[in-house]
Amino acid sequence: QLQLVESGGGLVQSGGSLRLSCGASGFTREYSAIGWFRQAPGKEREGVSCISSVGRTYYADSVKGRFTISRDNAKNTVYLQMNSLEPEDSGIYYCAARRGVGLTITTSLYDYWGQGTQVTVSS
């Protein structure tokens, strides 16, 4: 079993930055990619970004140029650096892992999920 724990959320003003962390423990060799997702109140969970085990990355159009995903394999941790934050970026941010191959931010293709961390961007 793989466990994921997110941290780094908080309250920030519009234009500010936050860095989220996703720590993995357990059977860390089970997954091929880690993704970040977010869910705003009353909305469906949406994919933000993902990174493969070899460092390939993918971003949703809404965050390209503002967010950067990276990983530290020695620490089993994936980061999401979020810059130029906007109120529309607010929500609960989840990291998730998938066993399947290929880069995707399709929610249903992920097998393990963390509990989430709240990000609030004030205008």
Commentary on this structure:
The protein is 0% helix and 52% strand. It has strands spanning 2-7, 10-13, 18-26, 33-39, 46-52, 57-59, 67-72, 77-82, 91-98, 112-113, 117-122. Strands 2, 4, 5, 6, 9, 10 and 11 form a seven-stranded mixed β-sheet that branches. Strands 1-3-8-7 form a four-stranded antiparallel β-sheet, with no helix packed on it. A hairpin with a 6-residue loop joins β4 (33-39) and β5. The protein starts with a strand and ends with a strand.
Mass-distribution shape? globular
Radius of gyration (CA) equals 13 Å
Percent range of helical residues? under 10%
| Class derived from helix and strand content | mainly beta
Distance between the termini: 40 Å
Brief sketch in words of this structure:
This protein has no helices and eleven strands. It is an all-beta fold and 123 residues long.
List the helices and strands and how they pair.
Layout: E1 2-7, E2 10-13, E3 18-26, E4 33-39, E5 46-52, E6 57-59, E7 67-72, E8 77-82, E9 91-98, E10 112-113, E11 117-122
Parallel strand pairs: 2-11
Antiparallel strand pairs: 1-3, 3-8, 4-5, 4-9, 5-6, 7-8, 9-10, 9-11
Write out key terms for the chains shown:
mainly beta; 4-stranded antiparallel sheet; 7-stranded mixed sheet; single chain; 52% strand; 11 strands
